[in-house]
DNA sequence: TTGAAAGCGCTACCAG
DNA sequence: CTGGTAGCGCTTTCAA
C-alpha cells in the first residue's frame, strides 16, 4: 500500500501505531488485543481486525520498549563462563533454561570473554535482568553483587564449587567427589594415594576442592593414608613423564581428577609396565561411556544433581520475594561406581 | 539521605536524572560526559562532578532505554541449539563472541528450548538484534528469515551443514569428512565400507551429510566400492549387537561417524574377536585425545575451521552494508590422520 | 467499547 | 559551555 519505496524502507519495522492505523483503531486497542488484556472488553470484530493487521504487517512487539514501560523485565541472565563447562553444568543449564521459560522468564546467556570483572558486571547490569545466575569461573565479588542488586536484580545466584558472600548459592561441592574416591580406595586397602591436579587453566576451580575433599577423607579415616598431589597436563607427554617416575613415587593408587585424565594416565601407566589395578588402582570421575570401554573398566565417581526444589522454582521464588537472607543449596551427590581398575 | 526506606527501595535504581541532580547539572550534560561525546565541550570540573556523582550513586545506564532512543541495538543474537554442540562449534562460538565484542557488539545467546520454530523466531525478533547467527539444529525457514529482517536485523547468518534459502551462510560442510574417511580407506585397499549412523536425536544433521560424502567418494572412485550404513546407538548393548553380526555383514572397514562412536564400536569388535585393523579397519573423526590413547591408535579425520575473513568481520561488514546477495563461505577443512586402526 | 495522553530512561537537536 | 525538550515504542490510567 505504501507508495514511497524509500519511506517504506525507513519505516519498514512496523510499530503498534502502524498496526493501529491499518486496523483503524487506536494504539491502546492494539495493545489490549495483542496482550489479551481481560480487564477491558473489545468486540470480536475489532479483535480480528487488529490481529489481521498485525500479522499482515509482520508486527513483532519491541521487547525493550515494553520492559522500559513496565519498569522491569523478566530476563534471567546467565553469564557464560569463558572456560569449557563440564558436561554436568551444560545439562543443568539446558534444563534450567526450559524450566524458566515455562515460568515465563526470558533466559539469556551473555558471554563476557575478554572483559574484566567490573566491566562484565556493569555490562550485565545494563541489561537490567531480574535475576543473574553466575556459574563458577565467573568472577563475582560482593561489590559486583551490589551493583547488580542496585540495578534492579531481585536475585543474584552463584552456581559452582563455592558460594560468594552476599549472593544465594547453588553449590556444586566438589569436595565430596574427592572424598568419595579416596574413601573407596581406602576401603580397598590402598594407603598411598595420588591425586591428579590438571594444569589446564580454569580447572583449578574444580580440582582444588576435589583435592581438599581427598585430604579430608584421608585425615579423618585414621588409616594414616597419605595423599600426594600430582600435577598433570592433558597431553601424552606429560602423562608419560609422570608414568616414568611412577615407581619412585611409591603410590598404590590414584584419583585421576576425572575419567578423561584417568584414561590418559592409565594408558601411560600401562605403557610403562605398571599393572592396573594390581600395582596401582585408578579411579576417575564423571562416569563417562569411555570408562566402561577401557580395559580394565574404569572405576569412577558418578555425579548427580539432586535438588529438593527445582532451581527454576527457587529462582522464581527469590524473584517474587526478594530480600531474604542468602540461601544455600547443595546440588551435587557423588556416588562411587566400582569397576575393575580399583 | 532518603528518609523513607520504602521510597528509597522503590526508587533505588538510579537514573541519569538522579546523577544530574546529584551533580547539579542537566540530564543532557550527564549524557555528554558519560558517553565521552566529543562534539560538545564540557569543563573538566563539570566532567569530574558528573563522574563522581555517577559512581557514587552506582549509576549504570539502561541498555533498553538507550537502544530504544538510538533506534537500533548492537546486539548479535546466537540462538542456542537445544542439542549438544560439537566441540568444534563450541570453540567457534567462543572465538566469535570475543571477536564481536572487540568490534563493540553485544553478543547474547538465547535458548529457545521448548519453543516451536515460529514462536522462537518471534522471540528473537522481539529483542531487535542487529544480526542473528543461527547454528545448525535451529530450524530457520525462509519466512523466519523474513520476520527477522523485517524486525530490523541487518544480517541473518546460518552456521551449519547446509545453507538456508535467503540467509547468509557459514557452511560446515560435513560431506568432506565422510569423503575424506572413505578416500583414505579406499587408498588402503578397502572396498566394503560401513558408515556408522548414530541414532541419537539431532546427530542426523551431521551424520546424513557425512554419509552423503562417503557415498559420493565411493561412486566417483571407480573402484566399485560398496557403502553400507550402520545404525548405532551410543550404548554398549547396541555396539555389541552390531559386532555380533559383523562377519555376516562382510565389511572390511568402517567409518564410525566420530572418535567416540569409533571407540565404542572398536571395543565391541575386539570383544567379538574381530581384529582391528587386520580384519576390519576403523576410522573416526574429530581427532580427540582418546583416539591417540586407544590400541590400536585410532585413525581419524581432523576438522579445522579455515576462514579467509574472520566471521566476526564478515558479520560486521554485512551489518554495515546490508542488502547484498546471500553470501556463502565454507569453513570446514577435513584432513585424514592415519594411525594404526586402518 | 474505544481513544487521548502520560511517561518509562535515554540521547540529540537547538537555544541560550 | 550548558539546559530545555522532543521523542524512540509501549502500556495503562482516565475520559468519553
Automatic annotation (TrEMBL), chains A, B:
Whether Ribonucleoprotein counts among this entry's keywords is no
Pfam families on file? LacI, Peripla_BP_3
Tell me a Gene Ontology molecular-function term this record carries.
DNA binding
InterPro entries, per database record: HTH_LacI (IPR000843), LacI/GalR-like_sensor (IPR046335), Lambda_DNA-bd_dom_sf (IPR010982), Peripla_BP_I (IPR028082)
Q: Which domain of life is it from?
A: Bacteria
Matching entries from Gene3D superfamilies are given as:
3.40.50.2300, lambda repressor-like DNA-binding domains
Kindly give the SUPFAM superfamilies that the UniProt entry links to this protein.
lambda repressor-like DNA-binding domains, Periplasmic binding protein-like I
Please list the residue ranges annotated as the HTH lacI-type domain: 14-70
Keyword DNA-binding assigned to the entry: answer is yes
Write the record's keywords in alphabetical order, separated by commas. Answer: DNA-binding, Transcription, Transcription regulation
Query: Which PANTHER family does the record associate with it?
Result: LACI-RELATED TRANSCRIPTIONAL REPRESSOR, LACTOSE OPERON REPRESSOR
Q: What is this protein called?
A: LacI family DNA-binding transcriptional regulator
Q: Which organism is it from?
A: Streptomyces salyersiae
